[in-house]
Amino acid sequence: MKSDLVRVLDGNIFVLSDGSGDIDAGPTAPLGFFSFDTRFLSRWRLTVDGERVSALAVDDPSYFEVRFFLVPGAPTHYVDAKVSVLRERSVVGSSFEERLTVLNHSGEPADFTIRVDAAGDFVSVLAIGQEWVRPGRLYQHVEDGRLHLGYVREKFRRETVISTTEPAQVDEQGLTYHIRIEPHGQWTTKLHVQGLVLRPDGQDVREHISPGRQRRDAARLQDDLRQWLDKAPQLGCDWKPVERAYERSLVDLAALRFAPLTLPTEPLPAAGLPWNATLTGRDAILTSLQVLPFTPELAVHTLRMLGIDQGSVLDDFLDEEPGKIAREVRYSELVAFEERPQSEYFGAADSTPLYVILLDEYERWTGDATLVREFEDEARAALHWIDEYGDIMGDGYVWYQRRNERTGLENQCWKESPNAISFRDGRLPSQPRATCELQGYAYDAKIRGARLARRFWHDPAYADRLESEAAELKDRFNRDFWIDDGEYYALALDGDGRQVDALSSNIGHLLWSGIVDESRAAKIAEHLLGPRLFSGWGVRTLAHGEGRYNPLGYHVGTVWPFDNSFIAWGLRRYGFHQEAGRIAEGIIDASRHFQGRLPEAFGGYDRELTRHPVQYPAANSPQALATAAPLLLVRTLLGLEPYGEDLVVAPALPERFGRIELLDIPGRWGRIDAIGAVAPQEATLGR
Q1: To the nearest whole number, what is the mean pLDDT of the chain?
Q2: Among 100, 263, 529, 646, which has the highest number of CB atoms less than 10 A from its own CB?
Q3: Is 554 helix (H, G, I), strand (E, B) or coil?
């Protein structure tokens, strides 16, 4: 997403505009007022006496509100404007409000014509940038001084209602104000823009499920944010970009929280703006893992929601299988009429083992045995899926191949783009595919599932079986995926059993899963920090020199902050403290160029070539996984690991970081502090 766009949001409800606050959505531009995967406003344009406005300054004091300071016409080097406009916007419940204040700077009374043009195309987020003939009907009408914009298709109906506190001439294309302002005076109106998700009886479906959320206002959001920040551990660091990235991450995590209709009182992270402002299983799980030492409640909500939606039948259209954890849930028109499968789509092979990993890691941190017992059936079903449905080829590996051949995802690992999995020379492998990190996740899930079975489910025989299967998987994996002539693990196996031999960042995930043989870990670390994979800012998704390498390719050369945070965690697990620190330093350094907010991905150019990280143009920002990356990096640098009822603190910091203090870390130990400095320290118990 372009960095010059201005956003306000509350979870999966958001407004994206240009720098003046205007919305002029073209066929491919993600500008608009969005709610529940639908664009409720595609035009929102302000003019003063027929002139467009330009921004002198933009102030965004919080994620849910922004202020634009505007003048009519194009700004010049010297502006002696006789009139200016203050545009104040905030997201409120399922709506947004805009307060317009027009100021007359002259010594004479002045007449002005203020116009706000409005339109809604009600396009699904999934359809932006694609050719698609709308089967339904758009409508506009004025009723009781309010402008109604809507779209209806059979029983599917969405509507935008626009009202104003000051008298206006309202027509089907917008609102016009003819006003007179006294010398050095001002005029103000408040516009309210409500997006309605209507049932056949004309009632908003959300009002009956979560009426409290519909009444959220700026004061409540501000109070909620204050409480959220107060509960999180307090961080101090000699290198100030760490503090800035940490604070930005906490605020953006708060901004991305949304309550799904199924659990209206249990917020979990939306995956990211603008393309994935919804529940995505993989993203929610990995984000919850990243932030466990800071905001453990997100894990609870994620586990519960994904447990409710866990697959129970075979459904080719949805790629659903018993025990499988959902990839995403959406609410748009395309989904309602089964033109896309994302009503509850299961096209991800990694979210299922990751579910078990999160459940175990959550208990290790919190000691919440009750939750582990509550989700025993879901965890067992997920573990069963690994062997029953994940093992398509019957060889003990986790594979994927879409059931939905028309609209299902071809790649069902985290690198989902069609060209993400390739051979060195760029050829695409046959299906099914077994990517290397899937085997690491399956191994880790079995090890963790065994711990849960032995300690909480009172099933030692099951635990023994899982541990035996994990050991066999590790041996088999290190035999079949190891590429001798490059000394690294293959990106995948293809349907013919061939090694898909591109060098990729996926090998870093193998470290945090623990499936790598100790004798081979040093070579993996060497590759990850070598010039082909490490850009200077972070590890590229695909190594420089591979057939499909592109520094601006979504999964074939860009740097993903979340990917790097897990790679650093894995390096630390195998004792490569310095290498983990280099990755942490690179990612945090990159955050300085994004005002502390790491985007989903940025260019994989060599640092020496560009001197600053290059924005990936279509990146989600904020994106939950990238937002949470600095938190996992802080955990990694401080060496925070739960050990029984204690928290082990084993700091290993690059010199640039100086000293880090993380105070009031929540967990089974209550609240404790962790302090790290550059000087080498022995591992200690936090206190």
Answers
A1: 94
A2: 100
A3: coil
